[in-house]
């Protein structure tokens, strides 16, 4: 793996901040549903928290990118991290079932803030590294996410037992505070290039949507992420059922499988820079997405023949590898295909589409979960990823030969007369 971006101070600060805050997020994501269930004994209460988060994503996702393209992106990531600290503190007050409404409100608010942070981080990253190192920087960000996913859930289980919801919230808030400090140390101003002087929310939103619709590759990313996110919504709803009913396992084994996929993601991230340097990005993304779907189909049909757990763990490591490869490649392709002044809005449009698709997938799983067996539904999810991968090649065309872009030439000096 190419570690050169980490030698660039500002990117190293952003990378470290992301690793710390993401780990805190995973800690809270494990501790929070356990705490709500313990307080209420009601799966419906947990569902209300999940729905509140999705509503926060959809509500803010429509407009957040406009403001990311208006404002200094470094300040956006700093402010979002600081506000996350403030928003998480009310969780320290939750002691009884009557106070679960606080958890619902916090879930909504944290996701609203995330809709500002994510496009700002994505748009800021190309400013912090040389153009030649952009694929490696995105691969490192993917590695970052998988390391957090590997460490965070295990730590979250320990914190949930030792400190409950308050302990997990305090730890997550502390990680956001550290992340805010690190991002504040990033140098320079990072406003979008050629930001519009006359600001009109509706016009700017339309301009962002056109950036997605009129670029063949960006449009393909939007469509394919939407298709695969329907499957992700189904997976998020049915995964626990798959583990308990199909594999006859429990919460401990569920954690093992999550960690196994994170291990595969780390391996894929380590391979990503070499593969993106060797292969054209569109075929590489197509192959990675397709392999991911095919392995998913095997995973979700394996219990038809056997329920021994270790082959499933091995398959989850394997399925994480193509994810580690294609995520960084997809976002690098998006960044080089989208003008800087539109990058926040285009990212928000793609992310909003994926979020709505996830809600649709969760709804499908909820409606059909009692009528169709879980293995069949999850097989459909895997087939959907295969279709998404193959569709990407058709929709995106051949695409660029490489993800590496040369540094812009400096403007020639004008001789003084």
UniProtKB/TrEMBL annotation:
InterPro entries per the UniProt record, alphabetical: MFS_dom (IPR020846), MFS_trans_sf (IPR036259), TM_effector (IPR010290)
Membrane topology designation: Multi-pass membrane protein
Keywords: Cell membrane, Membrane, Transmembrane, Transmembrane helix, Transport
Cellular localization per UniProt: Cell inner membrane
Membrane spanning residue stretches: 12-32, 44-68, 75-94, 100-117, 220-242, 254-272, 284-303, 309-334, 346-368, 374-396
Primary site of residence: membrane
Domain of life: Bacteria
Keyword Zinc recorded: no
Domain Major facilitator superfamily (MFS) profile: 1-191, 217-417
PANTHER family in UniProt: ENTEROBACTIN EXPORTER ENTS, INTEGRAL MEMBRANE EFFLUX PROTEIN-RELATED
Name of this protein: MFS transporter
């Amino acid at each position: 793996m190419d570690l050169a971006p980490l030698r660039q101070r500002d990117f190293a600060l952003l990378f470290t901040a992301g690793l710390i805050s993401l780990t805190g997020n995973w800690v809270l994501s494990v501790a929070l549903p356990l705490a709500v269930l313990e307080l209420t004994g009601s799966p419906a209460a947990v569902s209300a928290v999940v729905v509140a988060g999705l509503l926060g994503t959809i509500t803010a996702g429509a407009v957040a990118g406009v403001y990311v393209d208006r404002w200094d992106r470094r300040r956006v990531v700093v402010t979002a991290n600081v506000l996350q600290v403030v928003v998480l503190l009310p969780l320290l007050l939750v002691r009884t079932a009557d106070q679960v409404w606080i958890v619902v409100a916090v879930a909504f608010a944290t996701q609203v803030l995330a809709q500002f942070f994510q496009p700002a981080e994505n748009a800021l990253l190309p400013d912090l590294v040389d153009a030649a190192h952009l694929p490696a920087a995105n691969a490192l960000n993917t590695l970052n996410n998988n390391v957090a996913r590997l460490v965070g859930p295990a730590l979250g289980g320990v914190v949930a037992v030792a400190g409950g919801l308050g302990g997990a919230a305090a730890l997550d808030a502390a990680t956001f505070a550290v992340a805010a400090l690190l991002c504040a140390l990033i140098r320079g101003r990072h406003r979008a290039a050629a930001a519009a002087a006359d600001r009109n929310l509706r016009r700017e939103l339309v301009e962002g949507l056109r950036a997605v619709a009129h670029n063949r590759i960006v449009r393909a990313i939007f469509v394919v992420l939407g298709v695969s996110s329907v499957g992700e919504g189904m997976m998020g709803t049915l995964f626990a059922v798959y583990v308990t009913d199909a594999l006859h396992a429990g919460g401990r084994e569920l954690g093992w499988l999550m960690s196994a996929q994170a291990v595969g993601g780390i391996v894929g991230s380590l391979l990503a820079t070499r593969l993106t340097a060797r292969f054209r990005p569109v075929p590489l993304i197509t192959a990675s997405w397709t392999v991911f779907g095919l392995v998913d189909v095997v995973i979700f049909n394996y219990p038809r023949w056997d329920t021994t757990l270790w082959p499933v763990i091995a398959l989850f490591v394997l399925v994480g590898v193509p994810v580690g490869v294609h995520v960084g490649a997809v976002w690098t392709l998006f960044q080089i295909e989208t003008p800087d002044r539109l990058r926040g809005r285009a990212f928000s449009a793609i992310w909003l589409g994926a979020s709505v698709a996830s809600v649709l997938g969760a709804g499908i799983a909820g409606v059909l979960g009692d009528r169709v067996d879980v293995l069949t539904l999850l097989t459909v999810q895997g087939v959907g990823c295969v279709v998404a991968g193959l569709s990407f090649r058709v929709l995106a065309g051949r695409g660029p030969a490489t993800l590496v872009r040369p540094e812009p030439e400096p403007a020639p000096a004008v001789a003084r007369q």
